[in-house]
Amino acid sequence: MPIAKGYAATDASKPLTPFTFERRDPNEDDVVIAIKFSGICHSDIHQARNEWGNAKYPMVPGHEIAGIVSAVGSKVTKFKVGDRVGVGCFVNSCTTCATRDLDLEHYMPGVVQTYNDVEADGETPTYGGYSDSIVVKEGYVLSIPDNLPLDAAAPLLCAGITLYSPLHHWKAGPGKKVAIVGMGGLGHMGVKIAHAMGADVTVLSQTLSKKEDGLRLGADHYYATSDAETFKTLAGMFDLLIMTVGIAVDWNAYLSLLKVDGSMVVVGAPEHPVPVHAFSLIPGRRSLSGSMIGSIKETQEMLDFCGKHNIASEIEVINIDQVNEAYERVLKSDVRYRFVIDIASLA
């Protein structure tokens, strides 16, 4: 089996440390990728610290992977050595399920997560992008447009698709008023993508400290949610509101910002349940929904859309030995707007 190097969590209470491990042998339908960059997602922290209660150690996090194809199996037709590729949040799914739907495969049984999971054989651990190589089935590898820098493209594989999917599904575009709640790693991608779709974009952030960035990235309006007047001014304003923050907020107050038939879509999950009053929904026929990443098909559509509109993430590139410091900074919202690990620093 090929030997790989990376960084791993070995315990919920310990920092990530260097880790050498075996990748599975490539099959005839596999693509071998030399990883160049791996984004840091807040979910990496949740998983590494077992905050969701499903950690499998040792764990190599990372599902925002950008790299170069280094080898392909004999039956691979879509990729060749030297291609620029990405890997997102899952590396396999059920291909025989009666409920299989290629547009909704990430919601179906049988999804194999890129890390903290096991392969389809039920035994081989999956290890993620904080490493120098990965072996992935051809159908779960994505093409990265040539005009997008690999480092800034890496976060598109999670943050990008997490915002593109609901914006696309709820038909953000000309004539639609869209609110993005939170100006962080997810939110800033929502601003860029919604703007490129032609929507009128408003950022709702706790303060105005990132207003200049928000307007520069494509927002038409920017309001501070710490100001109670904001909720009065914007009442009944939006067709679509996307909640990217993972902290407890008054969802009833945000629902009041929707038009009749407006939708609030949750992509950032707070730790504890948040109460929603029925009469925040009923009088305006409003909807409260959730959304999770996207299918492989939709993720490739997102990458092509970002290539067409020259959209990539705002990033801070770090060496891999800075990963534990980066985790602490993420928790303090001390990054504008996504950390990306330069895997060359493993050498």
What attributes does this structure have?
alpha/beta, seven-stranded mixed β-sheet, 21% helix, single chain, 347 residues, six-stranded parallel β-sheet
Question: How would you describe what is shown here?
Answer:
This protein has 347 residues and is of the alpha/beta class. Helices cover 21% and strands 27% of the residues. It contains 9 helices and 19 strands. It has helices spanning 42-48, 150-153, 159-169, 187-197, 211-217, 229-233, 251-255, 296-309, 323-331; strands at 3-8, 17-22, 30-39, 65-72, 84-87, 90-92, 112-113, 117-118, 125-126, 133-137, 142-143, 177-181, 200-205, 221-224, 238-243, 258-266, 287-290, 315-319, 338-342. Strands 3, 4, 5, 10, 11, 18 and 19 form a 7-stranded mixed β-sheet that branches. It is globular and about 60 Å long.
Classify the helix fraction into a percent range: 10-25%
Which range does the strand content fall in? 25-35%
Basic shape:
globular
Record field, number of beta strands: 19
**Helix-strand topology string:** EEEHEEEEEEEEHHEHEHEHEHEEHEHE
- Model regions low in confidence, pLDDT < 50 over at least 5 residues: none
Give the overall pLDDT as a whole number: 95
Q: Which structural class is indicated by helix and strand composition?
A: alpha/beta
Largest sheet: 7 strands, mixed
Through-space gap between termini: 20 Å
Gyration radius over CA: 20 Å
Count of helical stretches: 9
